[in-house]
């Protein structure tokens, strides 16, 4: 089976700083794959490479057998990759619904004239996009704020709207950068359940050929500091420290790994007794 | 009352030109976060080209106007395509300096190709006017209002389509826009083409009777500047409203101030828009429609 993502020898340098060094891993379709590591380990840098925001200094990335580095950042949406941002990538002056609608933009075909004149085809397309966007908002529990300008919403709700936008893009691979950061315990549980439900058997595609938010069978890459969430959800966990892979395995394996314990807790001190 | 009506109409006509120029500033600002210092020179280029096509090449005015507008739009596009793309991701200061460079080049081009003597803008109606209820409405002024309304109408209509939504999204967060599949480069190119187009339309109509066309027409951009600050630099609605406000303020000042407050001097109407701008900014620091940067504490 072709891997959803096949990362080989990936490295990233900013001047003298080696942000990522020889990263190799592969993610199977439908897998929930978590990236963890102390602050500054390179998790978000890796996400930025996968979403083509940064260009790597070396290495390759295959996306369902295709060379990902041959695509531009804005072409990834159509290729089926969606992401959220650690510090939110929402369009603050727009409403929640418009934010999510932008996520459908890449799947719409009507041109300027057809859209502007509101020709029947364009109107139908727009109605479908709106329905899909509202469905995505409802799925994350943000249906009530569809018409609110997102700049006015509380943080937890912003996180939900951003996830809704990523889901509305109909992705095959979803990159979630700290989806539960800054949320209350109750909210964390809800979002974790929501992320878990993105997998499972594939549902029917929508009329525009994109999978709906509840369609399942998504491949999810998750960066998260909340270890409870990571250990509950992830099939496999990749641990980064100072830009290197220090462990890769199931949650249980990783938790027992002495390298991981050292990275998180430091070297045991040899104290005189 | 007649005087007031006359001045108000002149103000609206001038304001329509300012609104166009201000819109040009705003779309570029929204796409690249920089003030385009070449806006005035684009305007001069479009006006000179149109005038030359009519008076020297013998084309009909409307055809010349279309070609002039298309060429100026293409010039904006070419600048984005050949120069600015290489500055993507550089500090904004770099891009500002590049627009200043474009301004200098265009100034030299206009000067060497068409010289600095005043000339007519090439419109067919000259000084002809309509007389309505004691008011004299110049055809040039009527057409500048019509042209501005057509262009502005088309722009706001476009803004409601999904392309407009994509443009607004790109204006608000470029990285996120890329992540949802918006081709930023194309959005920026469209912004520059539009800036060229509105510059040409503004340039042609601001140089109709009784004004003439000479290279100092690029100063119109400086006068439109208070309009964008007044309206809020990142708001297209603000640019248009600001443009009309500034136009009316300027004409009313030019009409009444020498008579009632003569000690301010006879060129005070040029400073009046800035006075209004300062007053508005004291009350609303981000302009009438500008977005206040949200900060979470």
**Average predicted confidence as pLDDT of chain A:** 85
Biggest interface, residues from each chain: A-B, 35 and 25 residues
Give the end-to-end Cα distance of chain A, rounded to a whole number of Å: 56 Å
Report the radius of gyration of chain B as a whole number of Å: 19 Å
Shape of chain B: globular
- The tally of beta strands of chain B, per DSSP, is 2
Q: What structural category do the secondary elements of chain B indicate?
A: mainly alpha
Strand content of chain A: 15-25%
Account of the 3D structure:
Chain A has 273 residues and is of the alpha/beta class. Chain A is built from 10 helices and 10 strands. In chain A, helix 3 runs parallel beside helix 6 (155-168) and helix 5 (120-139) crosses helix 6 (155-168). Chain A starts with a strand and ends in an 8-residue tail after the last helix. The model of chain A has no long low-confidence stretch (mean pLDDT 85). Chain B has helices at 2-32, 39-55, 61-82, 92-114, 139-159, 162-172, 174-179, 184-206, 220-231, 236-260, 268-283, and strands at residues 129-132, 135-138. Classes of the chains: A alpha/beta (273), B mainly alpha (297). The A-B interface holds A 51, 53, 73-78, 82-83, 85, 89-94, 98-99, 101-103, 105-106, 108, 110, 112, 115-116, 126, 129, 151, 155, 165, 169 and B 157-158, 160-163, 165-166, 168-169, 172-173, 175-184, 291, 294, 296.
């Amino acid at each position: 089976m072709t891997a959803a993502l096949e990362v080989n020898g990936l490295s990233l340098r900013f001047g003298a700083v080696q942000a990522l060094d020889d990263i190799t891993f592969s993610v199977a379709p439908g897998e929930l794959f978590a990236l963890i590591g102390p602050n500054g380990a390179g998790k978000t840098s890796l996400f930025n490479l996968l979403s083509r925001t940064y260009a790597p200094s070396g290495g390759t990335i295959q996306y369902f057998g295709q060379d990902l580095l041959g695509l531009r950042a804005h072409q990834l949406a159509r290729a089926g990759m969606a992401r959220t941002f650690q510090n939110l990538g929402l369009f603050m002056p727009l409403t929640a619904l418009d934010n999510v609608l932008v996520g459908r933009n890449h799947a719409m075909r009507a041109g300027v004239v057809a859209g502007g004149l509101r020709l029947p085809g364009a109107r139908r397309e727009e109605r479908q996009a709106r329905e899909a966007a509202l469905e995505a908002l409802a799925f994350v529990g943000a249906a009530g704020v569809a018409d609110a300008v997102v700049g006015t919403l509380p943080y937890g709700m912003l996180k939900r709207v951003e996830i809704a936008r990523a889901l509305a893009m109909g992705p095959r691979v979803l990159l979630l950068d700290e989806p539960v950061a800054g949320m209350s315990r109750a909210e964390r549980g809800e979002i974790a359940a929501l992320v878990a439900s993105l997998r499972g058997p594939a549902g029917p595609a929508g009329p525009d050929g994109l999978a709906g938010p509840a369609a399942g069978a998504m491949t999810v890459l998750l960066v998260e500091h909340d270890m409870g969430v990571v250990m509950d959800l992830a099939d496999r966990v990749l641990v980064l420290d100072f830009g290197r892979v220090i462990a890769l395995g199931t949650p249980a394996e990783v938790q027992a790994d002495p390298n991981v314990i050292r990275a998180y807790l430091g070297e045991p001190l040899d104290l005189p007794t | 009352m007649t005087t007031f009506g006359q001045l108000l109409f002149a103000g609206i006509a001038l304001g329509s030109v300012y609104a166009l120029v201000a819109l040009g500033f705003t779309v570029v600002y929204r796409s690249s976060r920089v003030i385009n210092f070449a806006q005035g020179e684009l305007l001069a280029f479009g006006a000179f080209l149109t005038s030359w096509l009519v008076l020297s090449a013998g084309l009909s005015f409307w055809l010349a106007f279309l070609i002039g507008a298309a060429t100026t739009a293409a010039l904006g596009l070419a600048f984005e395509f050949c120069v600015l793309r290489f500055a993507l991701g550089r500090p904004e200061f770099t891009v500002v300096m590049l627009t200043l460079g474009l301004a200098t080049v265009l100034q030299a081009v206009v000067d060497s190709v068409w010289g600095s003597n005043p000339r007519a803008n090439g419109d067919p109606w000259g000084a002809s006017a309509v007389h309505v209820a004691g008011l004299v409405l110049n055809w040039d002024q009527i057409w500048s209002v019509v042209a501005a309304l057509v262009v502005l109408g088309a722009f706001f209509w476009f803004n409601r389509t999904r392309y407009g939504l994509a443009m607004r999204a790109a204006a608000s967060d470029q990285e996120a826009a890329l992540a949802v599949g918006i081709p930023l480069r194309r959005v920026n190119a469209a912004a520059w083409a539009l800036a060229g187009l509105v510059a040409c339309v503004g340039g042609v109509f601001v140089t109709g009777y009784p004004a003439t066309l000479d290279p100092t027409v690029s100063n119109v951009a400086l006068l439109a500047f208070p309009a964008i600050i007044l309206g809020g630099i990142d708001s297209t609605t603000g640019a248009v409203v600001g443009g009309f406000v500034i136009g009316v303020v300027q004409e009313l000042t030019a009409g009444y101030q020498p008579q009632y407050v003569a000690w301010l001097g006879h060129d005070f109407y040029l400073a009046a828009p800035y006075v209004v701008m300062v007053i508005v900014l004291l009350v609303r620091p981000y302009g009438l429609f500008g977005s206040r940067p949200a900060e979470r504490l």
